[in-house]
Every structure is written in structure tokens, then in C-alpha cells.
Amino acid sequence: MAETNFNLSIFEEGWGAISIAGSILFSPVLRPWYSKWGASADEAAMSLPGEELVPDPRLETTRAISIQASASKIWPWLVQMGQGRGGLYSYERLENLVGCDIHNADRILPEHQSLEVGDKVRLTPQENPSFDVAAIEPNSTLILRGDIPNSDGKPTTWIWIFYLNPIDEDATRLILRSRLDYASNFSNTLMWRVFTDPVAFNMERKMLQGIKVRAERRK
Hints:
Largest sheet: 6 strands, antiparallel
Order of helices and strands: HHHEHHEEEEEH
Number of strands: 6
Distance between the termini: 7 Å
């Protein structure tokens, strides 16, 4: 069977840009909803491996999606994420407008299926922002940690926890938890709470949806 084309249309990318603008504008009202997008109350409250890396986050979100595929079918899409690898399965054009040089894969890439603790997962061609693999448990948990330098001397620590929770042999809940800690000052609050937080919601939601449609593809 020919490969499925998962590239988003210009219309979809444009709607993504509108959604980002609206999320920034109405973040104070929308945040209780988008900070737990797709997650049940139990999932939002559950403890996940890796939370100790940011024990007292200033920002935390939990998002989730149901995927009609086993954890082992989803896992390869997680392992190959990153700039210069399999991409981020989100709004590719919007990411590349700001220089990310992202190219989302439509297939499993064997050359990017090896991932170990300490490996770097980049979001752009530059060193930052990027994540290091903090922990990895195949078919279960991938924990990425980024320490982003700040002018005030205290780096912002950001972790992404990807957790695969099987429902049955052919269905899985993919849970994504994000935790951030940063120095409390006006510029950091403006950057992370006012702008990055609502932008991240839209990009992470589309990423989860992108993983879902790829993993559910029928050969």
C-alpha cells in the first residue's frame, strides 16, 4: 500500500495560527480547560515517573488522547521525535516560520529508533531549546528534560513525560505531562505563562493528534 500523506493543508495550518492567537488572548479563561485537554480527572491527578525532576512546578499541564493501537505500535513514533529526526507531528509550517526546520515523518524511520538516556532531542537546529533523554522505558515511558539558560542565572527546567497506559491489546491512552520551573520575575512570567503556555497547548494537542493518526494507520 502506498504511504499515507499526513501533511497538513494550508487551511489547517492557518486555523492552527488562529487557534494559537485565540489561546493567548483568552488564556486566563481557557487555561483550566486546555491545561487538562483530553485527560480525565484521574489522569490529571495521577503521579507519573519523572515528576521528581521538577518537584515544585510553576506550570503543569496534563493532556491525553486515546489511540486505537497497542503501546508497541505507538512507541516507535515517540522514539524518533525531534528536529533532524522524525519531527514533532504538529504544525510543521508554523514551526518552520520561526526557523525550527522541522520535517514530520510519515513512516517509522529505522535510523532513528535508537534512543538512550543522555541523548539530545532538539526542537530547532540550535542547541536551545532542546531536551535530553532523562529516562526511557520501552513501550511505556519517555522522559525528556530541558534546562534552558536565562539571563538571571537560573535556568528554566522543562520536562515532558510521555506515558503509554494500555486500555487493552489494541488501544492505549497516551498521556503527556509537562512541568516547568523558572525564576519568578516579570519577564519569565510573561514569556512562559502568558505566551509559551497557550502556544504549547496548541502544538502539543496537534502533536498528540498527529501521533494518533500515524499509529492508527492501517497497512
